[in-house]
Description:
The chain is an alpha+beta fold.
Amino acid sequence: MLTDIIKDFAWRMENRVGELTMEFTESLDFSALEEALNKECVNLNAALQQAMLQALLLEEIFLSLLKIHAGRLGMRFKEYRRVTVTLSSGQRVEINSPYFIKAKPHGRRRKRGPNGSGAHSGLEITGFVGRVSPCLLSDALQMSLLCPSYEVACTVLKGRGIRLDVKTLRRLCALAGTHETNLRTCISLSGEENLHSYTMVVSVDGGRLRERKRKRGRKAKKLKRQGYHTDWREPELFTIYLTNSEGNIVREFNPLHDATMAGREAVFELIEAYLHNLEIEQLERIVFCGDGAKWIWNGTEKLCERMGFDKNQVYQVLDWTHAKQNLHEILKLVVSKKQAVAMGKWEYLLWQGSIDALGRSIAETVTGKAARKRAMKKFTNYFAGNRKRMQYARFKKAGLPQGSGHVESAIRRVINLRLKAPGTFWLKNMAECFLFLRSQLLCGRWNIFMGNLTALKRRDFWSVYITGGVCSNLLEAV
């Protein structure tokens, strides 16, 4: 079958090349030549993919293995169904796919369950998600995540000959981005991450987006649709990366990013799950970075307690830039003539970690009873309570980071450039999907994530597939 497809393509191209050459020499339009040749290659690609996929799904050996695998999952084969799948080129083809349903329980007849409980196991095992091929799924997701809207993503894909509507893109994002915590925290890991003798840096911060919530009550008669609230929400995001003994980032380890709408406690539970999936016992040190928000450090302390970290191996660093910004707020209470000298002295004391000396200098420099009271209140609330996190000179000497710029950059790229766009309002579940998917895409782990996503069903089936050398026999049959 495959040989016939290739021969037919070669025969057709022998006649077509002459026509294309003449058209190109007359018009000098290379874009038209590109489009015509690409179309022919796309048709060949689709025909080969359809033939190879259909041959596999119709093979009796493969079907018998699917039945064994389905039986372990409490399902049974019902019939072959004619379904339409979309290939990487955007072409839709029809194939006969084995369809499995839940096995009927023994005993008395029970009430019928909800529809949609069946599965096209053959397609799922080969990597199809929502009847879309793995390559097309990756392209469609990336366009949805990177373009400013679904509509723009549809337009870009249409220019490449792929016709998917907004509803389909939204459905694919939901399918790819909705996972339980135990799967979510390992699906972007390759299993080959080397943490030996490195320092792990965990940074946490919050972003902003507007959540769309439907208004309570009935829709007014004069309105076409129900109104909704658009309150600001704070998704919490974290990053994990490695540094060596000199404080340089380890480029061989792609950082881990993730974010959630579930709240401040949930983000630390998410971090904990990620850490459990990594061999953190190989690490030399663990550093937590953040700004002065109390929820970050309260969550960090609880996380360290739950994980049972050695206190001598864990460091907490309050971002140097945020510390200086808060120092500048106190500086505004100093008379103008003394500000330059005071700032130089205060920044030096802060860098050295001499927090007590900094407090005495502020009390001596700020004049006026009301101004001094405000200055010391700021010092007590922000600096005095974070003294162990402000030992910047010691951190620098030990090769530890002094700031949380890594997570600040991730907030801008993951959240601000797409989810915080003007006039954009998000349903909570779709915002959660986009936070997760954009994190995987922008941290450099997209190929690992997609490979694991499309192989989820195949891994359980693999032990059945290779048993007794059936794999080689099946290859000969196909």
